[in-house]
């Protein structure tokens, strides 16, 4: 058994055949999304598990700057509950880190898979009800995972001369308390960045030696720190 980031057309046909068969038997709902798998194959965004020459599992992903999104992950029915999903994810994470990608997100569909993804290290966004898009009850649950060591947030203010506050709302109300605060250490920020999933309309307030800069995330530092659905700060603004 092996995992490959370069499956061939025969592997793609094998996936098509067992997805079609499982659809007839009502074992999965991914057959209707086969075009997504085809596109990923043509763009080399498809990872497969191969057992004795047969593709028995796959994962589709895309990269946006320093972040990645998992579109589909699936294991052939008779091979499920054998830890193969973890092997796919581990292979993906190694691939992404080599490409300087440091965070992943996904939407759980079916929503029943949320327990599985959490066991694999993914977390729910605590502020989902404040997110313009993700708060939609008709959308699948949103999960994320950070792949590298990162600066942990706090609620305390004035933790250093240089720090940043995140406000998970728009606009910032007068005298409102920030949701999170991160210190910015010039000596460690490059290898211990600030990473958190956000709504681009949320606001940040940056403090540096008495100077204060406030803006929406999408405009802060000309939008440089917005990567996909994450704010990633790996240098002093």
From TrEMBL:
Domain N-acetyltransferase, chain residue ranges per copy: 1-149
Source domain of life: Bacteria
Pfam families on file: Acetyltransf_1
Gene3D superfamilies recorded: 3.40.630.30
Matching InterPro entries: Acyl_CoA_acyltransferase, GNAT_dom
PROSITE patterns, A to Z: GNAT (PS51186)
A GO MF term: acyltransferase activity, transferring groups other than amino-acyl groups
Coiled-coil annotated residue ranges, if any: none
Protein name: GNAT family N-acetyltransferase
């Amino acid at each position: 058994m092996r995992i490959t980031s370069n499956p061939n057309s025969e592997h793609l046909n094998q996936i098509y055949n067992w997805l079609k068969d499982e659809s007839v038997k009502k074992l999965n709902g991914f057959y209707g999304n086969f075009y997504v798998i085809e596109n990923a194959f043509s763009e080399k965004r498809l990872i497969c598990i191969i057992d004795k020459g047969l593709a028995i599992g796959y994962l589709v992903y895309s990269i946006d700057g320093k972040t990645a999104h998992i579109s589909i992950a699936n294991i052939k029915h008779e091979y499920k509950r054998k830890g193969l999903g973890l092997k796919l994810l581990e292979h993906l994470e190694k691939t992404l880190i080599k490409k300087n990608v440091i965070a992943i997100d996904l939407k759980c569909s079916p929503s029943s898979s949320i327990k599985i993804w959490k066991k694999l290290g993914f977390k729910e966004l605590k502020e989902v009800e404040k997110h313009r898009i993700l708060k939609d009850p008709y959308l699948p649950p949103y999960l994320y995972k950070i792949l590298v060591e990162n600066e942990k947030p706090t609620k305390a203010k004035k933790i250093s001369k240089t720090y940043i506050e995140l406000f998970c709302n728009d606009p910032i109300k007068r005298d409102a308390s920030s949701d999170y605060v991160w210190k910015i250490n010039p000596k460690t920020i490059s290898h211990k960045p600030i990473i958190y999933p956000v709504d681009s309309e949320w606001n940040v307030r940056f403090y540096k030696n008495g100077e204060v800069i406030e803006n929406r995330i999408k405009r802060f530092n000309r939008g440089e720190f917005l990567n996909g659905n994450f704010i990633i700060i790996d240098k002093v603004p």
